[in-house]
DNA sequence: TCCCATTGGACTGATACGTATACCTTTAAG
DNA sequence: CTTAAAGGTATACGTATCAGTCCAATGGGA
């Protein structure tokens, strides 16, 4: 029977994956670009600065740059006022992009299935438990979003309004989570924010203008301590965002 | 002004954290134990096997073992039929545990608030998406729970049936999460189990006998693909567990 | 009783990865 | 045409991890 040591019942323990430093750097840079912190045509900080900011050696940064260049995400120009330049998205193979988008679609659906559940509950708890300090932060975030939208309505092509909007939006939702006084909900919302921007990027501020329309009523419901209404509005809000994102992925941009 | 090179506008890019291999190993093993994949008193596979299973060298495993021993999670015995032994967490007397758990009352409430939300949704999705393989695992877990209850009904005072019940219970709920086909829900359920394992321990298997009564109907609802019923039963089940736990904390036992 | 298989403990040399540092090359701006 | 600001290249060093070998304890079976 050749009976070696068969019999291992089940693999309760899986292989560990050791992530290389340069991979972490690749992820970080890719994420920053996806978030709209660096727009096409713009330059990243010089390699030496990146190295310092990321607490990593320049060699490691350069390995990461190689990967990003190979992926068509960056271009490199040498010489004075050269640097690491963020590529235009169109430079990339359309077919590859479609496949990419489709994969992201699945990820996004998972995220939104999760998000509805979590944020609805979060809104409900927040309405019951919020303090005035929470309201204050939320109001600040609302104002910041308005401002960002106003700034972006100009022909201005700065990255700042986009990043600013995303930051404020995140701050708004996170404050609701904080108001829920539940650390697990807070952690989940945080995870959602992180996961969401990876597949999508901060490209579509315009789509979110209407989504933003629901922020104010949501604020009011929470201020009024109306848990049911808050939950309802939040559910709608998340659904609206989901629709907008899916349309975006379907190429209607 | 002293104007050095101030002006770095914002740190769009954060330091990366390089995780050592042995840390990953520690995390894996700790997780497996938290989830009841290895019960107190049981042995982990020999270092050499662990190394192979985790695609890592034995030296790395040993570094991780040092950490786990220092944390009091493992004991090491040398020689033939020695090995890495999972320590018993709840060797303490019930009263002491109750005091400990009382301190954890707030934390437990947070966990259950979160748990209702998450596991209800999980059950609903599971009913819609489960495969036959999921049912098989769930059935195995059900049987294991019955067996554990039977074993504990004896005058037996071993920790084993208790831990075994918890492990099977965890396996049951985790499999539902797996059937939901949503990685975020799965991660959350796992986090819940890990958070509950410590404060709850195996103190009160008797209380859970009735809770266990709901496992079978829950299984049926999921097998029937009845999402609404599954969600409802799950909500009740979690509530029942919560009540039982709170009563225990209030000393009714 | 005694041998021996099993399992943790300890050591060594090889290698890959990341760091630190210095220096070269390209290029735009003054 | 000099200079400063990038990226490009090269070298040496430290260390984490690996692969392999041998030692030490220990319990069970011949």
CATH class of the largest domain in chain A: Mainly Alpha
Q: What structural class should be given to the helix and strand makeup of chain A?
A: mainly alpha
Major sheet of chain A: 2 strands, antiparallel
Q: How would you spell out the order of helices and strands of chain A?
A: HHHEEHHHHHHH
- Biggest chain pair contact, residues each? A-B, 39 and 39 residues
How many DSSP-defined strands of chain A?
2
* Computed Rg of chain A: 22 Å
Q: Helicity of chain A, in percent?
A: 55-70%
Count of helix runs of chain A: 10
What is the CA–CA distance across the termini of chain A?
64 Å
- Overall 3D geometry of chain A? globular
How many independent structural domains of chain A? Answer: 2
Strand content of chain A: under 5%
The CATH architecture of the largest domain in chain A can be named as: Up-down Bundle
Low-confidence stretches of chain A: 1-9
Oligomer: homodimer
Q: What is the CATH superfamily label of the largest domain in chain A? A: GntR ligand-binding domain-like
């Amino acid at each position: 029977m050749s009976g070696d040591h068969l019999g291992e019942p089940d693999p309760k323990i899986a292989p560990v994956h050791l992530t290389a430093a340069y991979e972490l750097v690749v992820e970080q840079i890719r994420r920053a670009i996806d978030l709209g912190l660096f727009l096409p045509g713009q330059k990243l900080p010089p390699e030496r600065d990146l190295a310092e900011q990321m607490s990593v050696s320049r060699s490691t940064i350069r390995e990461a740059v190689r990967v990003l260049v190979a992926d068509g995400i960056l271009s490199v120009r040498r010489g004075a006022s050269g640097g690491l330049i963020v590529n235009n998205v169109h430079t990339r193979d359309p077919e590859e992009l479609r496949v990419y988008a489709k994969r992201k679609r699945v990820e996004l659906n998972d995220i939104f299935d999760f998000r509805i559940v979590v944020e609805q509950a979060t809104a409900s708890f927040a309405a019951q438990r919020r303090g005035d300090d929470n309201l204050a932060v939320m109001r600040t975030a609302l104002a910041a979003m308005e401002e960002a939208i106003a700034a972006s309505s100009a022909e201005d092509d700065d990255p700042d309004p986009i990043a600013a909007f995303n930051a404020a939006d995140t701050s708004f939702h996170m404050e609701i989570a904080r108001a829920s006084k539940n650390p697990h909900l807070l952690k989940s919302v945080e995870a959602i924010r992180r996961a969401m921007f990876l597949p999508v990027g901060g490209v579509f501020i315009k789509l979110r203008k209407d989504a933003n329309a629901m922020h104010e009523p949501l604020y009011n419901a929470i201020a009024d301590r109306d848990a049911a209404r808050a939950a309802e509005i939040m559910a709608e809000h998340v659904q609206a965002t989901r629709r907008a994102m899916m349309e975006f992925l379907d190429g209607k941009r």
